[in-house]
Amino acid sequence: MPAGEEISTVFGVPVQALFGQVLIGLINGAFYAMLSLGLSVIFGLLNIINFAHGALYMTGAFAAYFLLQWAGLGYWWSLLLAPIAVGLLGVVLEKTMLKRLYHLDHLYGLLLTFGIALIIQGASGTSSGRRACRTRSRASSPAATTSLHVPAHVSRVGRRVLLVVCVGTWVVIERTRLGAYLRAATENPTLVRAFGINVPRMITLTYGFGVALAGLAGVLAAPIYQVNPLMGADLIIVVFAVVVIGGMGSIMGSIVTGFTLGIVEGFTKVFYPEASNTVIFVIMALVLLVRPAGLFGRTA
């Protein structure tokens, strides 16, 4: 180091490294927020614990990869078409399977969506040239792990899209007439039908929108993370923890908690790396001890 040159530190950590981890934490937090937002929309409005959310996130990433590499479409087209494709898949799942479970215990929906997730992961692993469910290794097959290369400015704009979609979804659900109809349809569907609203169609579209958010997150994640059949499985447990901390069904809780925990995780990697993989779950346990409904959840 040249004489007279000093490096600013915070508790012995260089400021540059600290800011780098904060940026990574914000990026991770944006994906936590987007995925937990979709989960909260589905649970809050439909009472379904959608364990297939991570698999649908992975499906969005693979759809973007195939649209770019095979179909030759640009990234912006992929950003539009891949979430629509995932949303349509969600509509099919809701119409054929999930609608039978709305009046049953949450456990049935969790088990069904967990099975759907395993099927999607297995199919993706097979099409990638390996069985994703039989090994955790990501480097054993070139086809199993892929990368999506886009210009840096495109990736930056994509991250801004995450924030806009998160805020926009909260505004629609909490501050518009459509959002009021959606909330009312889950609490008193008979009354909503009296106003001439097709409640089953609204529920189907809501589920499709919730999983389309997961697909959109997958498209935006494809240029940043490695695209592989297990990318959703590696993330979904953390996202469920984010949803529990924020409050099951709370839109604002998902957004605020997602970004906050991403930053907390980033700081933990700087000051105590050994705890970075568990800090979110420790926070979840502490929050549940103090406030079982979550930070933004409605108490009985």
Structural category: mainly alpha
Strand order of the largest sheet: 1-2
N-to-C span:
60 Å
Unreliable stretches (pLDDT < 50, length at least 5) are 130-144
Shape: globular
What does this structure look like?
The chain has 300 residues and is mainly α. The protein contains 11 helices and 2 strands; from the N terminus they run E-E-H-H-H-H-H-H-H-H-H-H-H. The chain has helices at 15-46, 53-69, 75-96, 106-127, 152-175, 177-187, 189-194, 199-221, 231-246, 251-271, 279-290, and strands at 9-10, 13-14. The chain has a two-stranded antiparallel sheet. Helix 3 (75-96) packs antiparallel against helix 8. The longest helix is centred in the first third of the chain and has 32 residues, at 15-46. The protein is globular and about 65 Å long. 44% of the residues are buried. The model is unreliable at 130-144 (pLDDT under 50).
Short précis:
The chain has 300 residues and is mainly α.
Core attributes:
single chain; about 300 residues; mainly alpha; 2 strands; globular
